[in-house]
Amino acid sequence: MNLATIDIVIIICYIIITLLFGFYVSKKASKDIKSYFLAGNEIPWYYLGLSNASGMFDISGTMWAVTAMFVYGLKSAWLPWLWPVWNQVFIMVFLAAWLRRSNVMTGAQWITYRFGKNLGARLSHIIVTVFAIISTLGFIAYFFEGIGKFATIFFPWDLSFAIGGVLISSEQSYALIIIAITTIYTLKGGMYSVVGTEVIQFVLMTVSCLVIGYIAFTSVSAEQITNAVPGNWKNLFFGMELDLDWTGYIDSVNAKIEEDGFSLFGFLFMMMIFKGIFASLAGPVPSYDMQRILSTKNEVEASKMSGLTIIVLSIPRYLMITGFAILGLVYLGPELQEAGSGIDFETILPLAIQRFIPVGLKGLLLAGLLAAFMGTFAAFINAAPAYLVNDIYKKYIKPNASNKTYIRFSYLSSILIVIIGLLFGFFASSINTLTLWLTSALYGGYAAANMLKWIWWRFNSYGYFGGMLAGLIAATIVPTLFTDTSDIYLFPLILVISFLGCILGVYLGKPDDIKVLKNFYKTTKPWGFWKPVIKELQKDDPTFTPNEDFRKDVLNCIIGVVWQMTFVLAPIYLIIKEYYYLSIVLVLMLITSLILKRTWYDKIKQIKN
């Protein structure tokens, strides 16, 4: 498809502005590594919240979500629990405050704060750095797969070429160009560049989402939607079986459901709950989400930032997701039925943009989606080099080097990580495959050790190292042994293997230094099994009180998950014109908002920093 001149101009202008901004803030960012990776802890929480929301609004994820809405209907609202998306609720309620109190720069540096400096702590320090790099490489491959599919539908030029006998497709060429541009502005501006450009990107994406929602709402009637989908498509709830038969509508969707492995939806839901609890208690993984929490000014702002992310992300995003899904169902459905098998459903989003968005608005939307990709990608390539620079190079190789040396090494680290991630991307089969591996297998290896580190005093550095090592090995090997099983169903096995590694490490190694544990608990104050450490602290200070907020935090998390879900469902019910259910969701939104204001927000405002 040939874009109109005005659309191309809008996209080019956005790219130029982004690059100029990166160079503009480069002097401020290069002052020292704290300025480069955490922006000196001086960015207000609301900018970080908008940046965090923008960073989660990526093209690959949006393409996946549009496909899920198209195929599974209202039940697709549950599928983001695969990540699990409600880890943001746990972070908002208590984990953001716990993490921010550490005053460290990276998740690996946090290991020293938690476990000390013995051999086990050094091993743990290295293994969490390895995890951060592996997860970043996986996400780069995920982004590469999505942006390539997206770009080839819109840009008319054939950029395929051969190098060394290997054919590089147009899809891959476009992805390489966009990733190169993103890498340049992120290298120059660090966290300042990431946050600044993402705030601009968030505004751009919100406008685009509202436009798409309006077009879908005014172009498609409730009757057209009903005629285009199976009877159970509009039903949010489910039994053990999915009970969604596309025969006579778009027959090939049935094969897509079978391929995804989601036919036993009730069992899938139980797996998502099981996985979600462990993964959420583990806290944010060492990537852009953790980096933003550590970039806030204090624990109160860290908590408020996470709450804002939930609000501003879901409503505009699901206006767009639902809008594109129903436009595709109503107007592309008959064509897809005629096309038969072999349809790549992950291209529904770009096909819908190509077909339904008018000139001018198309350029704005494409710039917005491009911005979403660039923002998320930039966040990852800002976060990962922090581990190589601060936790490997500075700690073990050149502890007394100049700030200029550290910044230059961060440039080199970013480029190296991007190149290796792109090599992984060349061999990725689909966005859905990468999504399931990242959310289920890889994070299955992360959850056990990172949950226990918060709640159990006896969990030592050797336990952390053993659990993470066992988890990483299991996440790599187990999926290759069960190739016909969806990765989400392998999560319990990978988690058990990781737990075994944790327990072996704990009981083969000695307890960590009590001074380190006392400092950690006194500063962080998590709830959990800390009685021996609390007793030692009370010997020094009889007035010391432990954290007794477990029941309150659990209740707030349950209410918070319902609250978060209302922000997802409200735009969906609005676009598909189910006003009765919309009214129920809005009442739930109001009730849960009032409860959380009293039980969470008013409480954190009382904390003095």
UniProtKB/TrEMBL annotation:
Keywords: Cell membrane, Ion transport, Membrane, Sodium, Sodium transport, Symport, Transmembrane, Transmembrane helix, Transport. It is a multi-pass membrane protein. It is found in: Cell membrane. The keyword Cytoplasm does not apply. InterPro entries: Na/Glc_symporter_sf, Na/solute_symporter, Sodium:Solute_Symporter. GO terms for biological process: proline transport. The chain crosses the membrane at residues 6-25, 45-72, 78-99, 119-144, 159-187, 199-217, 262-285, 306-332, 364-388, 409-428, 434-452, 464-482, 488-508, 554-573, 579-596. GO terms for molecular function: L-proline transmembrane transporter activity; proline:sodium symporter activity. It catalyses: L-proline(in) + Na(+)(in) = L-proline(out) + Na(+)(out). Pfam families: SSF (PF00474). One of its GO terms (cellular component) is plasma membrane. Belongs to the sodium:solute symporter (SSF) (TC 2.A.21) family. This is Sodium:solute symporter.
